[in-house]
Design brief:
With 469 residues, this protein is mainly alpha-helical. The chain is built from 24 helices and 2 strands. Helix 23 packs across helix 24. 39% of the residues are buried.
């Protein structure tokens, strides 16, 4: 492990890059986690992020022997703050995060670039599978991948959560939404060179944050499967979970020879990387229901401006005329209200326009995705929802999707991972011809962030887990 200051940029670069290329780096590294083409750019990006992180105040102790007590104190503080939140809700306070169901679904999309590479920062350490000091970190990565079980693979769970609500096609998100994911993938690409930073990032990411607990609670209230979030509440616990393993990894990999103080300073800077980019609270606070609805309708306007009949006129104009030019959606919505096609702040089922959209016999059936319909429904309902009129429409979440409607899908995915997929069958044949070291190397290739959620990646994870013991 080099003792030099690794915040220094590669030779020939005198300017620290900004996060302006985070989305491109994210996509490049996800497509080719070991590809050489993006190696130098990923390192420069990572160096720039570490320079930004170095300016952020932090409470992490620089004494390794203090980390255990620090981690436990943080966990207890989070538990106390969550208890205060629950008491406020019991006393009648409204949800803290999500104003309505579409707000929660928009949040799931906004944090998706990070959630869809969950655990990626540890991928580059798999090469150290023979070194017992890395075992806590390797176990953390394998558990993020569900040990090859699709029902427990975090990325698969999140993919299914998005798909269940028609949210899998992400909107045009800013570069900041991809910043954390790009950091994780860049750490994976340069794990050996930036090992203390990887350890520190892992230490920060695996602590249990308050927002995770509140998110799970409020998603359940809105009848959205909270399992992805409740899974992290349990698996990141401070007693025996990933938070404890993260502390143990610092102790296990502390250099016996070399500059221990520099090691801890770099661990602390890796920890601070968690503060960069657009975080969950910012995503939550940035949501505006009417703006989101208008943006959605503006995107669809391009495809609907020529396909409506001229039979119906609203405010003296046909629907095609309303949709002909950009920027008219807000006025169109006002006209729909004025002429009572939409009855704001009432049960949406009382609105003629909603009845055109919702139901198997609706004339516009299939025009809007489930998420798009939710935006429209929540906007129409407005104060009716906030005043309690929609209570009967949302029940408390009781049965996780993975145990109900997706049960057959999970069983099918498990079967596929065990050999009923052409890629899996090819892998099994290939592995029979490889000696032990090459076999493990091949499995590692298929456990990359962009592959491990596929059947062949799940099979590779299962075999690697079994070999690791």
């Amino acid at each position: 492990m080099p003792d030099s200051n690794l915040l220094e940029l590669p030779p020939g670069n005198t300017k620290v890059s900004t996060c302006g290329s985070a989305r491109r780096i994210y996509n490049d590294l996800l497509a080719e986690p070991r590809g050489g083409g993006s190696r130098a750019e990923a390192r420069e990006f990572l160096a720039s992020q570490l320079n930004l992180a170095a300016r952020i105040p932090s409470d992490i102790p620089l004494g390794a022997d203090q980390l255990g007590a620090w981690m436990e104190a943080q966990a207890l503080q989070t538990a106390d703050r969550y208890a205060t939140y629950l008491a406020s809700r019991k006393a009648g306070q409204p949800r803290r995060y999500f104003s309505c169901r579409s707000h929660a679904l928009a949040f799931l999309q906004g944090v998706a670039p990070t959630k869809l590479v969950d655990g990626a920062w540890l991928y580059g350490l798999l090469e150290h599978w023979g070194d017992v000091r890395f075992y806590p970190l390797l176990r953390t990565y394998l558990e993020e991948l569900g040990d090859g079980d699709p029902a427990q693979n975090h990325v698969v769970i999140y993919q299914r959560l998005l798909a269940a609500h028609g949210c899998e096609s992400l909107p045009e998100l800013s570069d900041g939404h991809y910043q954390q994911g790009a950091i994780q993938l860049a750490l994976a690409r340069h794990a050996d060179e930036f090992l203390p930073e990887v350890i520190g990032y892992n230490l920060g990411y695996e602590q249990l944050p308050l927002h995770l607990l509140i998110t799970a609670f409020e998603l359940a209230e809105l009848d959205i499967d909270p399992y992805y979030f409740t899974l992290h509440v349990t698996i990141d616990n401070a007693d025996s979970g990933h938070a404890r393993k993260a502390v143990q990894a610092v102790l296990d990999l502390m250099p016996a020879a070399g500059d221990a103080q520099l090691f801890m300073e770099r661990v602390a800077n890796g920890y601070r990387l968690n503060e960069l980019g657009i975080n969950s609270n910012t995503v939550i606070e940035s949501f505006h229901l009417e703006h989101a609805l208008i943006d959605m309708l503006e995107r669809k306007r391009v495809f609907g401006r020529q396909v409506h009949s001229d039979f119906c006129r609203i405010g003296g104009r046909t629907v095609n005329e309303w949709l002909a030019e950009p920027g008219q959606v807000p006025a169109f919505l006002r006209a729909l209200e004025q002429f009572r096609w939409i009855r704001r702040h009432e049960d949406p089922r009382e609105s003629r326009f909603w009845r055109l959209v919702d139901g198997a016999d609706a004339q516009m059936f299939g025009v809007f995705s489930p998420f798009e319909k939710q935006l429209l429904e929540d906007w129409i309902a407005g104060d009716w929802l906030r005043d309690g009129g929609g209570k009967q429409r949302f029940r408390a979440y009781r049965h996780p999707v993975r145990q109900d409607t997706a049960e057959q899908a999970v069983a099918a995915a498990r079967a596929t991972a065990l050999g009923q997929d052409p890629e899996v069958e090819s892998l099994q044949a290939e592995l029979k011809l490889l000696p032990g070291e090459l076999r493990m190397g091949r499995l590692i290739e298929l456990m990359a962030p962009g592959i491990h959620s596929r059947p062949v990646g799940l099979e590779a994870t299962r075999l690697f887990t079994a070999a690791l013991g």
